[in-house]
Design brief:
This protein has 13 helices and 16 strands. It is an alpha/beta fold.
């Protein structure tokens, strides 16, 4: 895949002609660089952490980067002896400015990913049919010229035009949603994934698929590593989601092995933050809404089952790092800090200041009793781990859930 794209670069300079005594690049040399920056580059080069590029013509630059001298020229000026050796520099990081498509862009994770991609300078085509996504998650982008929205069911083939990367996030993701949309969940995990892979194949684009920790089912291994094959009930109520995601992983790998698509997969564990659907049935959203409304917090079982909770900003960091890696097999992304459901309930009560009591109900069928990722692979491969504590993340999410409670109260008053 060869793309004529802009580059943001951070480089270490060594023996570079035209650098003065305090490490600044001579203005004539800047102009020379810009004049040599017109040719397309191969994005595969961006996958390597460090490259030595020899000769002025081998470097492709983006003018704005050169202006940000303190961000670009990161090392002090070379010694005179180095200058005599000629031109060379080491590229520490390259970020292509691309046109990308995000399926499920109006969803919780898809909308946050869209925001981050736009903040990095990319052009984003968002596709969603609003079956579970919310238009208000994208409303702030109405006047963003680099964002294009397609109201599209991804289970039907579609062509967004040339793109450099495909992020596939289209799927119901919470139990109430995928139980209500059982057939649709299976379709989006099969036909929807295949259609998104066909876009990547057509345009020789990179591809990242959002998979899930539900592939592990009711795990017999703890914490769960990527090599664990899972313990899933293939005919239980949750199977429409679990098996759709497992099939999708097989399909992604088939397109990689048989069609040569450059694919990546992340297995996402429990994630929370602003834009999480208030009624999606997951632990954080349930507790936050119930606490803010003064209702009892619903505990299924005795509350001893465990979960790990990753704040959405941390997760998006991991997704973007994975998208720039060369790893094609799944990588766990989640918070390895494990909490019981009771501990989570108490944290929500502390953050909200609520006096809500706890209400215990029967544990749903096939609800996992333990779920926690082993993120050794993500740490080693990507240098990634979550930074946000549960309390910090709940505090950052509080205003959003308060706004949802206010909207519901206003709607009830109208009716």
């Amino acid at each position: 895949m060869v793309v004529a794209a802009r580059l943001y670069v951070r480089i270490s300079v060594g023996g570079f002609k035209g650098i003065n005594a305090d490490g600044q690049v001579d203005s004539h040399q800047q102009q020379s660089l810009l004049q040599s920056a017109a040719r397309p580059i191969n994005p595969a080069s961006s996958r390597t952490r460090s490259h030595r590029l020899l000769g002025g013509g081998a470097f492709t630059a983006f003018q704005t980067s050169l202006k940000l001298r303190d961000r670009v020229w990161s090392d002090s000026a070379p010694a005179t002896a180095d200058v005599r050796r000629g031109w060379f520099w080491t590229v520490e990081h390259i970020l292509l400015v691309m046109r990308v498509v995000v399926t499920g862009a109006a969803g919780f994770l898809g909308s946050h990913l869209t925001d981050r991609l736009l903040s990095e300078g990319h052009q984003v085509v968002g596709a969603d049919n609003f079956s579970t996504g919310a238009p208000e998650n994208l409303a702030h982008l109405a006047n963003e010229p680099r964002f294009q929205f397609l109201e599209q069911d991804v289970c039907r083939p579609f062509d967004p035009g040339h793109v450099d990367y495909v992020f596939n996030f289209a799927s119901p993701a919470s139990p109430p949603e995928y139980l209500r949309l059982a057939i649709e969940t299976l379709r989006v995990g099969s036909a929807g994934v295949e259609n998104s892979l066909e876009i990547a194949l057509r345009y020789r684009a990179g591809y990242l698929h959002a998979s899930t920790s539900e592939c592990y089912g009711e795990p017999l291994e703890h914490p769960q590593t990527e090599g664990y094959w899972g313990n899933v009930n293939p005919v239980g109520p949750r199977s429409v989601y679990d098996e759709a995601k497992r099939y999708a992983e097989a399909l992604v790998m088939a397109y990689h092995r048989s069609r040569g698509v450059s694919t990546r997969m992340v297995r996402i564990f429990n994630t929370y933050g602003p834009r999480l659907q208030p009624n999606d049935g997951r632990v954080i959203s349930n507790f936050m809404m119930q606490a803010l409304k003064g209702e009892p917090l619903t505990i299924y079982g005795d509350g001893s089952q465990t979960r790990s909770f990753c704040y959405v900003d941390d997760l998006i960091d991991g997704i973007l790092l994975m998208s720039r890696s060369n790893e094609h097999l799944p990588v766990n992304l989640g918070n390895p800090d494990e909490f019981t459901v009771l501990e989570c309930a108490q944290a929500v009560l502390d953050v909200t200041g609520s006096q809500s009591v706890l209400r215990f109900l029967a544990l749903p069928e096939d609800d996992p009793t333990r779920r926690c990722p082993d993120i050794t692979k993500a740490r080693t491969l990507l240098g990634w781990e979550p930074r946000t504590t549960l309390r910090e993340g709940l505090m950052r999410s509080l205003d959003f859930f308060k706004s949802r409670v206010s909207l519901r109260s206003a709607a009830l008053e109208i009716h």
